[in-house]
Amino acid sequence: GDQLSIVKRAMRERSIDDRAFDARKVLTLISRAKNSGVEPQPKPEGMGDDYDLITHLVFPLYQLSLKAQGVVDFDDLIVYPSTLFEKHPTLRQEYRDRFTHVMVDEYQDTNHAQMQLLKNLVPENGNLCVVGDDDQCIYSWRGAEVRNILQFDRHYPTAKEVRLEQNYRSTGAILNAANAVIDKNPERKDKRMWTDEGEGRSISIVVAPDDDEEAR
Predict the structure, then answer these.
(1) Which pTM was predicted?
(2) Cβ atoms within 10 A of the Cβ of 37, count?
(3) Tens place of pLDDT per residue across the chain (216 aa)
(4) DSSP state of 15
(5) Distance separating alpha carbons of residues 54 and 78, to the nearest angstrom
(6) Residue 103 φ/ψ, nearest 5 degrees
(7) Helices (H), 37-151
């Protein structure tokens, strides 16, 4: 709510009607820009829309308002430490010495900003363990970068990869269908899920006429 109020005020300062344009969408684009490590910019002619330009105009006022109030938003909690570590190597080393072992869960959902923070906290030869599945990366709409897990060995070349391919939740019929679908993706870690739960029932395909019926 506080963030939306700031965005709406910034839109009015830029003479943008906050009834014609959704402040929530502007806030989402601001967040996405911070997570990708690039300030919001209007796209070339014919490629973007009004929201790209609005976000570009609102962003500096949004940040100025946060600073004036002495507050940060959630994304800044990730971005600012990285900036500090890069500007002050002594401080970075202090934290590297403090956190001798680091573990990251759901690594496939990390974004650019989180990856930068991790690289600052954990050097190439550091004690880092990440857990994730590139086939389960479904949050790209909020900035998740699947290449973080696909290219993990480039950032940490001495890392050992352990594949956990046994599935305890699904039957063979479900896994065979899932494997057949996901195999079509050329940009993924090579793996094949299996189970000793047996083949189970055959899969049924249900086509729902609308989203309400699908939910039901």
Answers:
(1) 0.81
(2) 14
(3) 999 999 999 999 999 998 899 999 999 999 999 998 888 888 777 677 899 999 999 999 999 999 999 999 999 999 999 999 999 999 999 999 999 899 999 999 999 999 999 999 998 888 999 999 999 998 887 788 999 999 999 989 999 999 999 999 999 999 999 999 999 998 898 889 999 999 999 999 889 999 999 999
(4) T
(5) 24
(6) -125, 135
(7) 50-69, 74-87, 89-98, 112-121, 147-150
